[in-house]
Amino acid sequence: MSTICETTLRVRYAETDQMAVVYHSNYIIWFEVGRVELLRQLGFSYLEMEQDGLNLPVVEVKCRYRHPARYDDEIVIRTRLSQMRTSLLGFHYELLRKADGRLLAEGESVHLVVGRDMKRTHLTGKYLAAFHAAAEVAQLATHAEAQAATQAETKS
Amino acid sequence: MSTICETTLRVRYAETDQMAVVYHSNYIIWFEVGRVELLRQLGFSYLEMEQDGLNLPVVEVKCRYRHPARYDDEIVIRTRLSQMRTSLLGFHYELLRKADGRLLAEGESVHLVVGRDMKRTHLTGKYLAAFHAAAEVAQLATHAEAQAATQAETKS
Amino acid sequence: MSTICETTLRVRYAETDQMAVVYHSNYIIWFEVGRVELLRQLGFSYLEMEQDGLNLPVVEVKCRYRHPARYDDEIVIRTRLSQMRTSLLGFHYELLRKADGRLLAEGESVHLVVGRDMKRTHLTGKYLAAFHAAAEVAQLATHAEAQAATQAETKS
Amino acid sequence: MSTICETTLRVRYAETDQMAVVYHSNYIIWFEVGRVELLRQLGFSYLEMEQDGLNLPVVEVKCRYRHPARYDDEIVIRTRLSQMRTSLLGFHYELLRKADGRLLAEGESVHLVVGRDMKRTHLTGKYLAAFHAAAEVAQLATHAEAQAATQAETKS
User: Which residues in chain D have Cβ-Cβ distances shorter than 8 Å to C20?
Assistant: First the structure.
């Protein structure tokens, strides 16, 4: 299993602004595109997760902008799992210009795992298995470490 | 009761494109801003309507663009009810530049009245009364004409 | 040369609204995606056109919504040239759900041909040739008819 | 001079997603709304700055989401200058639900000061004076400290 998912999209005119570059909030939407394709590569869709009562609302997002993306550029989104705790997932993104491989931006998003009632819950079944496998390949903190971290977090 | 609702908004940088004008799909979102304020002027919010199980999905929209809106412009949205049938509402919009009153764009949207199941339904109670009053003031086709029109439409 | 361009995109979460369908202004952005790919199929990019000093601002857009597009749906955009006059182009769009071919929406956009100064101008060179060829294949009004129509329009 | 600017906006339907909350990238656009109003409070508009050849492209943005904003909520955006160096400005944002004052999200954006050529430049004249005054009231690092910091940053 590859730990990194690569997806490509093309910049829409609607995404540019009058500085003739992509308006910065659109990169956050592109993160979503990358994340959703990473899940598909793990063997399921985010749609399925929602239908199974699991949502991943964003609790934190950051992005560092290095070079502007421009209209009609093809953008490669490289997404990987960067954090996994009992009810929290983190993803890391790199946005590259396809033409020359230049890194345009990078960022991270952190998501809670919640149920239909929007309360914290745990990943289970195939979702837990898939994320767990991805976390192992990515050599993220082991489950034991994650549990310890989560417990510490819950106390604070 | 005034038949026309005027609301003002300011163009966001995010709404511009690299032609240094507002990207055209944003006008459609501004129509929504105007429509929602017209409802509030009629005595209720669209939020309330939804909570009462009534939705107004768009079935048709058109917009004619006359002069570009630009960054930081204040835009006046003039909205009025333009059609009212048993389970269909139409709204008309004019977008003006506040600084000089110039008409930038005008358009129309047509909405079905549906219930929580997304099936056609009828306006009732205070919603029916308010739209009916607005239709009368705006001198739209009378209820009888509207019913006839709706029946003809249903047959076709 | 095919007169119809088909492109596919996948609905983003960002494009949905709380009715759990795609918010209607996004279809207008998808029209742009289709239009841009039609140009590419004609042998050039809209980016090139802009760099050559030709812009195609939208002067009119309409959309009829038949069935909602939903999150993660793959959408096929079928775009064709629908009008061609000296300094005006029209495009027609059909949006279909890829899974079952169902028509979700259709619409049209009309564009002026303008120069860097945003004043009306004429298509020239390879752009004129390509659109002309597309218009012929699509059996749009002949150039003579178009000229007559444009003259009439200019007088009014 | 107040160091904090408060602006209010109302959540648009277009900004919601199918989780029935505001889609997270929209908060980044709201940051822009707050920032632009802070500048206006400082005595000029961002439009003027651009016309005078100064742009403030975003180089970093982060947002922490605490409670969801919902359709039709009125949102108060509290913006303040949080960093000021020779060619770099930082802004801090708090988004509160107007109805009960609850903090929904907070974040920061960092901006380069660039000229028309998109190369780093310095604030000058009234812009420098206004930001400097705001930085003093906000008790940010003094100009001397800022210069030292900028020099250190440039070397690294």
Answer: 18
